[in-house]
Each structure stands twice: as structure tokens, then as C-alpha cells.
Amino acid sequence: MEIQRPKYLSALITRRHNGFVKVITGIRRAGKSYLMNTLFYRYLISDGIDSNHIIRFAFDSADDLASIGEDIEAFSKRKVDPMKFMDHIKRNVIDDDMYYLLLDEVQRLESFEAVLNGYLRKPNMDIYVTGSNSRFLSSDILTEFEGRGDEFHVFPLAFSEFFSAGESSVEKAFDDYMTYGDLPAIVSMKGINTPGQAMDSGGVASFSAPRDGVSHLAFPALTRERNHHADSFPLAPLGNENGRTESFISGDSDEECVSKG
To answer: For residues 3 and 16, what is the distance between their CA atoms, to the nearest angstrom?
Structure first.
């Protein structure tokens, strides 16, 4: 089942045409790229935007890099040449209508701040970017855009999202949520009905280790990045003598959980 994130999508939609670079941050595999390149892209198409006016580019994609003439072998040693990327944008922006730039892992572009600040001065550019490294997870990222950055932080799945994407009971889903974690990839693996099957199949074990210093397989409530989940689901108690979850309470929305932190 496809994971829907209506609260995040709605919050992103409200930021359209606000004159800022929409900076989507969060730990790796939290669902930033999926939110921007799939859910938001689909919304734009359904809203009547011509696909030729939506420019998607992933700076960690060999196909995208090759399309602008980047040397793939050299990419591991340096960042993307901004002139090659700007030439790509220039070739694709052919009129004065609104264009939407959806740029994934933009920190891999050399001098990305100057490039994006330049596009902000164009009246027909609406810019959305994602980033995952320590620089993007810091509170200083917005200063890079000279006061014209609008940070939008994406957390891994709240329990309500995790539960809605599966087919098990509430109790079983919560046990899985606390045992296997809250990353979207765990519940979106095709042909796997539960996160337990994902673990048994070796799917989770095949995930690469994160470079941002955050463990992706830790319990959701045990990292600073995921404190909003702890607020959402107070446990009383966390477990009994058999190690199983006794009870939980769910009720807060993502926005309410963030505001509590």
C-alpha cells in the first residue's frame, strides 16, 4: 500500500509561491524525496501544471548528472559543477510562465546558495529543495539563503501513518512500530505485509549505514530526531516483564507534536 502523508503535503502546498526557497530537511530515508518528487509532483500535475514546467533534478542520480554532462567518476571527489546545472535550467525554461524546481540532495551542488538565490530573483521560479547531511540538519541552513529560506522539517512516520499503510491490528502494528522503527521504507516494501517479514527477508539489513550520525533502526522514541513520537504515544508502562508493550495513547497530529518539542 502506498504511504500517504496528507499533513506534510498540505503544509507544503500552502508554501507555494511564497517567494522563499522551500528547504525540506530531515534524516535520511525519512521520506523527503518521496514527499517532494512523488506526492507534491502529483499534486502539481492534478492542479493543471504542465509537466514541462516542473523541473526535477536529483544531485545523487547518475542519470541526472549524465544528462548535464557531469563526469560520474569524478563526482565522488567533488561537487556538481554549477555552470553545467545552470545551463540545464536555461535550456528548460523557455517562457515566462511559472516553473517549479524540485531539487533533491542540493547540498551536492557547488555554491548551491548563490545559484538558488539567483533563481529567487526570477519572478517565474518556485523552488523546493531537499538535503540530508549535517549542514542541512543544523539550524544555520536558513542563513545561507539570505533570509529567504523556509525550512520544512520532515519526520519519519507517525504511528497513525505507519498503521494506515499496513493491514494488521492496532496492537500488532504498534509492536512492529516500536520494534522495527518508523522509516517509510520498512512498510513500503512490495510483497511484504509486516515489518517483521521485511527484517526476516533481509530487506532492512540491506539499507546502507547513515552518514548523518543517526541510527535509522533505533526505537522511534529514543533519538532526538524522533522526540515528537514520544510525545504522541506516551507509554504506561513501556513494557512488562515479558518485554511486550502494555498500552499506548495516540491523538496528536504531527504539527501538535512538533509544537510540544
So the answer is: 23
| 192 in the same domain as 114 | no
Q: Between vectors from CA 214 to CA 208 and to CA 217, what angle results, nearest 5°?
A: 60
Q: Is residue 1 part of a domain?
A: no
Q: What is the mean pLDDT of the chain?
A: 75
> In 3-state terms, what secondary structure has residue 33?
helix
Q: For residue range 146-198, what is the model confidence (pLDDT) as tens digits?
A: 667 888 889 998 888 888 877 788 998 888 888 888 888 777 664 445 555 55
DSSP 8-state class, residue 11: H
Give how many domains the chain has, as a whole number.
2
Domain membership flag for residue 84 = yes
Work out the angle at residue 221's Cα, subtended by the Cα atoms of residues 215 and 222, and round it to the nearest 5 degrees: 50
* Distance in angstroms (rounded) separating the CA atoms of residues 203 and 224: 25
